[in-house]
Structures are given as C-alpha cells and as structure tokens.
Amino acid sequence: MKNILLATIAVLGVTSAAYAERRLNNLSKDVAVRHRRLLVKNRFELTPLFESTINADFRHIVGGGLKLEYHLGDMLSIGILGVGSTAIDTGLVKKIKPTLETSTDNATREPSLAEFNAHLNSMPLPGAAYVSLTPWYGKLAAFSQAFVAFDFYFQAGLSYAQLKSDCPTTICSDPAPGMSSGPGGMNPPDNNPNNDAPLNDGSRLGLYLGAGIHVFLSDFIALDLTIRDYAFSDNPSGADFNANLAVTSDDSRFLHHLFFGVGVSIMFPTTVKRTP
After folding, report:
1. Which of 27, 115, 215, 250 makes an SS bond possible with 111, Cβ 3.0 to 4.6 Å?
2. Is the pLDDT of residue 11 over 50?
C-alpha cells in the first residue's frame, strides 16, 4: 500500500512539473508560424488579364484588360476590373446560319440570315467593382524540391457591361412592335418579330461573383486564375423569346455570363514583409 502511494505521488509530481514547464515557456500563446511571408497584406495588386466566356449561346466574348486591387489585410481586399472585348460566333451560330434563307419572307417566323445576324449582340466592355475574401492560403510542393505559395479567394460586388447590337433600319423597320400603328392606330400589329429592334444594347448593371487562386511564382509575381460571373438582364439573340410575336423589353432575362480569366499579378511594393 505504501509503495502504491509513493508511486502516485511521483506521477503527480512529474505531471505538475510538466504543466509548470508548459506555463513557463508560453507555447500555447505563441504564433503558429514564425517569419511568415505576408504576400498580400497591405499590398497593391496590378493584374493584366485575358478572359473568355465559357457558357455563351451565340457569341463568345473574348478580350483583355486590367484588374486593380488593394489588400487591406491577409483576408480582405477591394478591387475593380475592366476588359475590352470582341465577339466570336459560337458553334451553335455556325450551325444555324447555313439553315437560314438569304431572302426575307415576312410570312414566316423564321428570320433570314441578315435578320438573325443583325439581332445578335456583343459585349465590348464587361467590368466589376468588388470586395474579395481570402480564407485559405498555404504552400504547394513539387517532388519535395520546389515550393510555391498559393491562396484561394472569393469575390462579390457590382457588375457593369456595355452591350452593342447593330440592326439597320432596312431590317429593324417596325416602329411599334406588337402595337397598332398608322393614323389613329388603325393598322394592326404585323406580328413579325424579325423586323423589330433587338433592344439588347446599352449599359447594364448587375451582380458580380468570382472565385480564383493565386499561385506565387516569386515574392511579388503570381499567376492569377479566376472564374467570373457577370449577372445582368440581357437578350443575347435579340429575338422574340417569350413568343408573343414582338420583341419587347419582356424578352430580356436575368442571365449569368460566365468567364474564365487568366492573368499575371504584380504586387507592390515588390519587397515582401515577414512576421516576427
């Protein structure tokens, strides 16, 4: 019994000493990583970029631009971006065009080739202002030799788009789509949406969402890969979407325009700071 008591006292003594040692070295309150590189905190990011649509029905929007972003800390930043773009016909449009007649026939609802082309729109200038959150960062190792830092970010804000369509008066000649015209409104609607104005150009405001990754190639240069969603009201075909035999504002819908972007981010100042 005496031996058991002595053993118990010895164990308690060792435990108390270990606990006291932990209290004295204060490791529980120490930082997890010392001399960590602050790759984004309090730095200005300038990113030349290229982006292209990934879900366009009628015209791919492809262009280049610039992203400007200031990182308030490790996690939070604010930024703006703008892209000058051109339009390229999608595979769907290339399949549709050979099936269309070159001459106009107002007796049918099928557009002619010229009418179809004239109603499609493009997006010369998409852009956004946003707030960005970076919840995760770390390092990647290749063959236990090369190490690169990375971070994942999510963005939300306001989108802007300048849309453009060119429908000449020789095609878009109906002054009152879906309505009576002439003196006293005596002429009935022509019920031909193919000669109506497409109503799919001008400025648009909407929502912006984004998600991406920085892969740091050095202390101040990073590869920037992003998925962007410019969401706003649009009618890309410029056609009678709701089948009421007239093109009106009701044919526009709230659409998600998805883009994939790639850029090279340059961080300023170029000298990185480290934690203690």
Report:
1. 115
2. no
